[in-house]
Specification:
Layout lengths: L8 E5 L3 H18 L8 E7 L3 H14 L3 E9 L8 E5 L3 H13 L11 E5 L5 H11 L6 E4 L1 E6 L8 E7 L7
Antiparallel strand pairs: 1-2, 1-7, 3-4, 3-6, 4-5, 7-8
């Protein structure tokens, strides 16, 4: 089976510290168990940005300066029949996250996606429905319930998941001058 490929550059919010470690452990453990490709835990704010990387980095720097840090609340584990949403934590709708998505979309010349459905993926791929249901039950209660989004990460997400690379990251909030 050929692995799905993403396109362009993506803007991510990523957990840090203990939340990052715990979520990475879940993703890595499931990847070994299921034979899938592991990836860094993240909530995608905007994907498929096709502008040249230097322009995306500058746009992300400006966007990050306009956003204040905020809490990202993870809720139940779920899975659907989409490669990049095979198994994931739902993210409870927060105004800060929806506002950040809207600002990101506009920063890169798009209209905000009315179907924006933030999530933190645990597995990319295709799973048998019974296996997926078993994993959802096994992961109920989750590894963490929230994390603080403090940085905006810029990832080149062209090609297969194993080739994705971070190209920049910016603190959220106004630039500090001393």
């Amino acid at each position: 089976m050929e692995e799905a490929r993403a396109k362009g550059i993506s803007l991510w919010l990523m957990p840090e510290g203990d939340a990052h470690r715990r979520l990475s452990e879940i993703i890595d453990r499931l990847a070994v168990r299921l034979g899938t490709t592991p990836f860094s835990p993240h909530v995608t704010l905007l994907s498929g940005v096709l502008a040249p990387p230097p322009a995306v980095v500058e746009g992300a720097r400006s966007l990050g300066a306009d956003l204040a840090p905020f809490s990202v609340d993870l809720s139940s584990v779920d899975g659907i029949d989409q490669h990049f949403r095979c198994l994931f934590f739902r993210v409870q709708g927060g105004l800060s996250l929806r506002d950040a998505h809207s600002r990101a979309a506009r920063q890169f010349g798009r209209e905000p996606d009315p179907s924006f459905d933030p999530h933190l993926s645990l597995v990319y791929g295709t799973l048998d429905p019974a296996e997926k249901a078993g994993l959802v039950a096994e992961l109920a209660g989750g590894a963490t319930t929230s994390f603080e989004a403090r940085r905006l990460h810029v990832w080149r997400t062209d090609g297969p998941v194993g080739e994705w690379r971070e190209i920049a990251a910016f603190d959220l909030g106004p630039l500090q001058s001393f």
